[in-house]
Amino acid sequence: MSASTSGRLGWTVIAPPVAAIVLAISWGTHPAPLAASLIGVALIAAVLAAVHHAEVVAHKVGEPFGSLLLAVAVTVIEVGLIVMLMVSGSGDTSTLARDTVFAAVMITVNGIVGLALVVGAVRHHLATFNPEGTGSALATVITLAGLTLVVPAFTTSESGPVLTGGQLTFAALASLVLYGSFVFTQTVRHRDFFLPNTTSTPGGWTADNDADGDDHADPPTNREAWTSVGLLVLSLVTVVGLAKVESYSIEDAVDWLGFPHAVVGVVIAMLVLAPETIAAVRAASRQRVQISLNLAYGSAMASIGLTIPAIAIASIWLEGDLALGLEPLQLVLLVLSSMVGILTVVPGRAKPLNGVVHLLLLAAFLLLTVSP
């Protein structure tokens, strides 16, 4: 039996249902420190299992469908978590959607991109990618962020960073149109712009060689692929659910440290995006930086393009205002990230320095969230 098949029949199959059982037992509880530690172990196992099954499915369906699948799957569940927290959360939840989406954008466009570029460039001298496809993705992310997070900070029809009903409807429809147009471009019209460049890689990955980098060229069978689809969904559900359970312990730690409550959302966003982060770093280490960038920008795009329409619909039943406009400090970080992202993408190749710049922007975001 190959190592790949053995992996599918081993801990990666057992971990998701075990994590689901842990979630069922712990859901709605406020775990003590020891219990929280055990839940954390289950959470980490679910994250690693999600990465494995996402790669199995990606091996079967090919790129860019594999990275798109993981990005959309994580984001759909993330949207459900945001809506659930807004409906059941205590206190003021008017800025919850904004803070969560902004955190996801900063983590993806700076954290995941930065890590991928550093790993790819250090291991292979330069991180290479297709500037046409990656540039289109970044342009879509910037436009989505501008329409949904920047514009509300400057509108005057409502007091505060709030959109009117008509404005929110337009933002939601524009988000869906932009995201749908990009998916069509990525998967149908110009799919080749989003495939990894392997022509200069001795022994590199190709569709007919080794799609998952495990030295086994044979793709998974249909049965194995569908099993991985089910286990991927189960893993992602448990990741988000266990992150919600762990949020109580995180809140206690944040309160004890005296940090702003927004830190809780950032930590949860980092946990939820962990599968994509690990998958992106592993792809970059195999000189498939294009796939890493597909994951990063695709996740940022899906986080906005799916979350805003869902929140717009949920706001019909939710009480209170929906504050989407960014604060001045957040605006500065978004502008800096956009400018640096453009300069990174245009050449089609990057040095480790480019990744370090992105990671420092993420560090600035984390620091200023803790100490604004």
Structure overview:
It is a single chain. This protein is an all-alpha fold and 372 residues long. It has one domain (3-370): A middle domain of Talin 1 (Up-down Bundle), CATH 1.20.1420.30. Helix content is 73%, strand content 1%. The protein contains 13 helices and 2 strands; from the N terminus they run αααααβαααααααβα. It has helices at 3-8, 11-26, 33-61, 65-88, 96-124, 131-150, 165-189, 222-257, 262-272, 274-285, 289-314, 328-345, 352-370; strands at 127-128, 349-350. A two-stranded antiparallel ribbon has the order 1-2. α5 packs across α9, α5 (96-124) packs parallel to α10 (274-285) and α6 (131-150) runs parallel beside α11. The longest helix has 36 residues, at 222-257. It is globular and about 55 Å long. The chain starts with a helix and ends with a helix.
SSE arrangement:
Blueprint lengths: L2 H6 L2 H16 L6 H29 L3 H24 L7 H29 L2 E2 L2 H20 L14 H25 L32 H36 L4 H11 L1 H12 L3 H26 L13 H18 L3 E2 L1 H19 L2
Antiparallel strand pairs: 1-2
Helix pairs in contact: 2-3, 2-8, 3-4, 3-8, 3-10, 4-8, 4-11, 5-9, 5-10, 5-11, 5-12, 5-13, 6-7, 6-11, 6-12, 7-11, 8-9, 10-11, 12-13
